[in-house]
Hints:
Blueprint: H1 4-39, H2 43-59, H3 68-81, E1 100-105, H4 113-124, E2 129-134, H5 144-152, E3 157-159, H6 167-178, E4 183-186, H7 194-198, E5 208-212, E6 227-230, H8 233-243, E7 250-252, H9 266-273, E8 280-285, H10 304-309, E9 313-319, H11 327-332, E10 337-341, H12 347-352, E11 355-357, H13 365-372, E12 378-381, E13 403-405, H14 408-420, H15 422-440, H16 442-458, H17 479-486, H18 493-499, H19 506-520, H20 531-553
Amino acid sequence: xxxxxxxxxxxWREEGSRLIPQNFEAFRSLVAQARDFVQRGKxxxxxxYAEIAALYATEQHCGLFVSPELEQILLTIGRQTIPIDVTLxxxxxxxxxxxxxxxVSTAVMGIGGHSRMLWRWIGQDTERSHSLVxxxxxxxxxPKFLKDAVNNSQGRIYVLDKSIGNLVSWAKRLREIxxxxxxxxxxxxxxxxxxxxxxxSRDRSPPIIFVDYGxxxxxxxxSISDVVANLRESGMRLSHERRxxxxxxxxxxPIILNPIQRMLSRAEAxxxxxxxxxxxxxxxxARSLKYRTIDGVSFADAHVPLLEKYDRAILIVIGPVDPxxxxxAIQRSQGRIKVFGQREDTAVFYQAADIYVDSFPFVSITSLxxxxxxxxxxxxxYPYSHASKILSADAPGLTDKLILARNLPxxxxxxxxxxxxxxxxxxxxxxxxxxxxxxxxxSHWQCYLEDVYCRATTVPGLTVTSLPTTDRMFVGEPDVxxxxxxxxxxxxxxxxxxxxxxxxxxxxxxxxxxELVKQHGFGRLNVLLPEWxxxxxxxxxxxxSISIKKQLCQYLPIQISKP
Length: 563
């Protein structure tokens, strides 16, 4: 792993250079199918294939961060299917600050940066009413903390896929809901096509802000967004250079954090977790996919040299689901690598940490910010060149204080100094806390938000000439590294199409099901169910049935099989 900055990166570059043209051609075939459906007036099927194309470009990097051709297809669908008499709030004036904000998200959950950003945004921006539209919530329950935030702001929550419909009819419903909003904020996932369809007629839509959570990957929505709110400088630079977004349509909006007050000293938090007060706790928190093993060296393996050198050091990692590859490292460290699954009660761990270590190879910026807010020094690995800055953990408040290590030996050296030098560790942690607070908390963050609102409501309207017109593949940095860093496996087009069968019109759904039967035999009848019925009735009935059978098994001396 000492050579990750040279030999390994060269191999990644070669592989990326080979895969990108293949992926690009596959993507173009999907776009062509979507365009063909549009030309035949089959807008429902066209919308589904547009989503399939967007999802493919997200999962299998195609040398694109935006597709003007795909966006044009979605704009055509919207203009052909949504009546132009659905217009914006007549009481709103661009000379006045917006009062009614409509947030649009694909789905929200109890964990994850999207949901926390949205929740804290609404909780901080108390002078406005905030409503929320969820386009594809599925079986996920809307977290109580988010329900409470919306209710407290006098807003409402709408779940589109609970009602009978499809991508086009749900997009029309979104447009109708937005008619009373002063401003729309998109917190959507990269493949979500509904907002682009819904707001295709820009002159008859409220101002739109796109929050760029996925700045490292392909997304669509450029053609409808008055302002793109970038969470960091590298994302804003990519917006200019690769998405073709003008500088007056981009702005920095840092990730918002709640004010953090330490309730426990480090020693007290360590005692609660069962560790000695004089132990040195290294902490990392991220989703499981962010801890991928690279060249046979796992995230745990990377810390073994440090743990062998300092017997008071402990590594706690929260997020991995089933880190079997870490067992050897755990044994070599005499069990001083502690692994926990995903959990929401992380405050005591943050307060126990002496040093925070970022996930690798996929950074976790929200976790870095939260750790730094407790006065903890931050360390991240970054073996790339400046051209791949989007792969780093840069963010307002982090750039000057975060320690970046170029390779594993340097990483171990940096951590060793932090372990040994308590004064340096504490002073760096406190400086990190101050810079994060000055940009990500309370009234400091509100100033950034007001600037974004102002830009969105005063910037000149988007025109056709404002945007690129054709898709252009790029093979270079950072593109050549994205497949290795962000994709855990290759995904075939057929697999993505199958995942979207329930969204298709019945005719296409049936034909696709017949092909599945030919390949795999019977047993997939539930793909014939439309998505709205599958998630909100069939799957709920399944869960209820399994629960009942589990309860019966406690009382009956027979084995009841699952459906």
